[in-house]
Structures are given as C-alpha cells and as structure tokens.
Write a structure and sequence with these properties.
Blueprint: H1 2-35, E1 61-69, E2 79-86, E3 94-98, E4 110-114, E5 127-134, H2 136-150, H3 166-176, E6 200-202, E7 208-212, E8 217-222, E9 226-231, E10 234-239, E11 244-247, E12 251-254, E13 259-263
Parallel strand pairs: 5-13
Antiparallel strand pairs: 1-2, 1-5, 2-3, 3-4, 6-7, 7-8, 8-9, 9-10, 10-11, 11-12
Length: 265
C-alpha cells in the first residue's frame, strides 16, 4: 500500500510540474514582458498600415487572414484575428471581423468595413497567416466568405473567454473556405469554442478532428495544426511541419507558418 501511495504521489508531482512548465510559466513570462512596455493611452496607439498587403490598385482579388495581439490586458494572453479582402474589380479593401464591444449595446458584433487590411491593432503589429490571390476563383471565394459571415451563429454574443469571440468567428469562416488551409495561432483563445454546442468538429483547416468541452478543454489533431491540448483556454501543442512548439500566451515558437496561394484565372 505504501509503494502504491508513493507511486501516486510521484505521478501527481510530475503532472503538476508539467502544468507549471507548459501552461503557467509561459503566461507569466508574457505578462512580465508586456509589463515593461510603454503604458500609452489606447487612443494614441498605432492603427496605420503595416505595409503587408498588396496594393489595392492591383487588378486581382485578394484574401488575407491576420492575427495581432489583443487590446489592453487581453494582449497578455491572446490575439485578435480578422479577414481582409478585395475583389478583382475593387480598389479598396474590406475587413470581416467580430468586435466585442458592439454586443454590450445589443448590436451585431460581425462587422464588415472598409479600411487598411493590415493595420496595427491597438499598437500591435499584425502577423499575416494566409493569403490567396487570383481572379474569378478568388472572387467566388469572397462571395462564400460573406455568405458564411451572415450564417455565423453568435452575431449578438461575445465572451472574451472561452468564446464565442473574434477567433471563434474566423475559425467558423475557415471551415467554410478550406482553400485557406488555415491554422489559427495557439493563443487565439476562442478558436476551440465549437458552434451550436458541438463537442466534435473538423479543425479550422479541415485537415483533422477537434474535440471540445465548450472551449474550456479541447484536443486537436490535424495534418495542418499538428497536435494541441487546450486546458482552460491555455493551449500547448506541437506542429510537425513547419516545426514549432505551441505555448499559451507566447504562441508559436519555431518556424513561421505563413502560406500564400496564387490561383490562376
């Protein structure tokens, strides 16, 4: 009995050590890093273009997906994601994204607006995740994106954690546009909140399977995403190609996973 008790103590100690090293320590490191940053008022933070999008004047369609650290304290833990696009006959970009504060006033959180596709988000430089360019085929994809946004099941609801939020919305769009082959960042909190109370679904890239208990705990296995374990919104994972370690708050450590696709006319 004593040996059995000691064995369980060792197992518990190792489990706690894993939780501390992989789930708690990265969050603490990110908080310490951002604590040193300039405490600028939000209205003074950069919102101009980061010069990552193709010029709007080009005569082809463009779809891009971006992620940037969320505003204020939320940026310690996660990112805000959005889709930007322009049709081949358009000379301005539009953005599709969920903005949480609209829900506080009883308005639709899904916003489509014109503007910079690649602007800084409350001072945080965005990271390009995916890009598709081309002609008629990409124009047709944009039509599907807009139709999918109208079907989003939580237009009047927003919760920072565990969802639904802006990352839940982009995961919803990605499943309707498999051409993106989109892998969302591990610290895109809300991406594991599955629609309509489902506990199983395809991953956003549609290359694997995702299990979730309301976003509070989740497991993901996919050819694009690799393997991920979500515990209370904190995700730890391993991507095989491109190789990277995924950690809570810190995000992806390793090779970038930016994909650009060109569709011929």
């Amino acid at each position: 009995m004593r040996r059995s008790g000691k064995r369980w103590v060792r197992v518990l100690a190792r489990t706690l050590a894993i939780i501390v090293v992989f789930f708690i320590l990265p969050v603490g490191c990110q908080y310490a890093k951002r604590f040193q940053q300039d405490n600028t008022q939000w209205w003074d933070l950069r919102r101009d273009s980061s010069d990552q999008a193709p010029p709007a004047e080009i005569g082809e369609a463009v779809i891009q997906v971006y992620a940037a650290r969320a505003a204020r304290w939320r940026g310690n833990l996660g990112v805000h994601t959005w889709v930007a696009f322009k049709r081949s006959d358009e000379r301005t970009y539009q953005r599709l994204e969920v903005i949480g504060y609209y829900a506080y006033y009883g308005n639709n959180t899904v916003r489509k607006r014109r503007g910079n596709p690649d602007s800084y988000w409350y001072g945080n430089r965005p990271t390009l995740l995916r890009e598709i360019t081309g002609g008629e085929k990409v124009d047709a994809m944009i039509e599907r994106l807009e139709a999918s946004a109208k079907r989003y099941p939580y237009p009047m609801t927003y919760h920072v954690w565990p969802g639904p939020n802006s990352n839940t919305f982009i995961a919803w769009l990605a499943r309707d546009l498999p051409e993106l082959n989109l892998e969302l960042p591990p610290h895109a909190i809300g991406k594991d909140y599955l629609p309509n109370g489902s506990i199983a679904a395809l991953t956003p890239s549609r290359t694997g399977v995702q299990l979730s208990l309301g976003g509070y705990a989740a497991f993901l296995l996919g050819a694009e995403e690799g393997i991920e374990i979500n515990l209370l919104g904190a995700t730890v994972g391993l991507d095989v190609w491109p190789p990277a370690l995924k950690l809570p708050a810190l995000g992806r450590l390793g090779f970038d996973d930016v994909r650009k696709y060109q569709y011929p006319d």
